[in-house]
Amino acid sequence: MNKNNYSRLVIFDIDGTLVHCGPTPRRVFKQALLEVFGTAGPIDGWVFDGKTDPQIVRELMTEAGVEHNRETVERALNIYVTGLQTELPKAPDRAVYPGVRALLEELVKQSVLLGLLTGNIKKGARAKLESLDLWEYFAFGAFADDSAVRKELADIAVQRAFELSGQKFTGKQIVIIGDTEHDTKCGRHLGVKAIGVGTGRSSAAELLEQGADFAFADFSDHQEVARTILL
């Protein structure tokens, strides 16, 4: 790709921001843990938000008092991905949030480079987005395979954008978009614009209180969201 070809770098979270996958991911996650460890620990009430997939496995097994290592964690996650690939395409309660597809189309028209920053491992992220025909919008991503630390994932995402495009993105050229304060913190870490969306656990007002520069209830008015991104 040609250098300086993009107007912005926009990096999206996945779950609660772009898509809702219903209970299927947690159910197949639980099945994978049961298969590998014989227990899923206190998974039913466990908060996944802002955490990486390997981190969640380790936390649950620690709570359950079960020994685990890198190999067993990876085995469980591989089983989880297989479950996602099998179950998600037929899950009736998965959905793209309002305005998301139209927003992505508009950003592509505006020469925006689109990426992902997520606690999902890459194969899990792909399974979720492919089940809703969104994967192809994103040229690259930073995933849980890359680091267990979300702020490090932010740095990795920006570096990958440079490697892909040959363009060095800084300051207002970069926008982080997500549904939790963890996404906002990534924006603060990079010193860039952070936009919140209230389609997850937090409302738009709460995301503003947590430090987002802008926040929307959802992306229904995709043109207004696009204008805010391009400010």
Structure description:
The chain folds into 2 domains: 8-21 and 95-230, Rossmann fold, CATH 3.40.50.1000; 24-90, DNA polymerase, domain 1. 45% of the residues lie in helices and 13% in strands. It has 9 helices and 8 strands. It has a 6-stranded parallel beta sheet, sandwiched between helices. The chain is globular and about 50 Å long.
Key descriptive features of the protein:
alpha/beta; single chain; six-stranded parallel sheet; 231 residues; 8 strands; DNA polymerase, domain 1; 2 domains; two-stranded antiparallel ribbon; Rossmann fold
Provide the structure class: alpha/beta
What is the strand content? Answer: 5-15%
Largest sheet: 6 strands, parallel
CATH superfamily of the largest domain: HAD superfamily/HAD-like
CATH topology of the largest domain: Rossmann fold
Q: Which value, in Å, is the CA radius of gyration?
A: 17 Å
Number of helical runs?
9
Q: Residue-averaged pLDDT, rounded? A: 95
Please summarize what this structure is.
Keywords: Hydrolase. By secondary structure, this protein is of the alpha/beta class. It has helices at residues 24-37, 53-64, 70-87, 100-109, 122-130, 150-165, 181-190, 204-209, 222-230; strands spanning 8-12, 19-20, 95-96, 112-117, 140-142, 174-178, 193-197, 214-216.
Fold blueprint:
Blueprint lengths: L7 E5 L6 E2 L3 H14 L15 H12 L5 H18 L7 E2 L3 H10 L2 E6 L4 H9 L9 E3 L7 H16 L8 E5 L2 H10 L2 E5 L6 H6 L4 E3 L5 H9 L1
Parallel strand pairs: 1-4, 1-6, 4-5, 6-7, 7-8
Antiparallel strand pairs: 2-3
Helix pairs in contact: 1-3, 2-3, 3-5, 4-9, 6-7
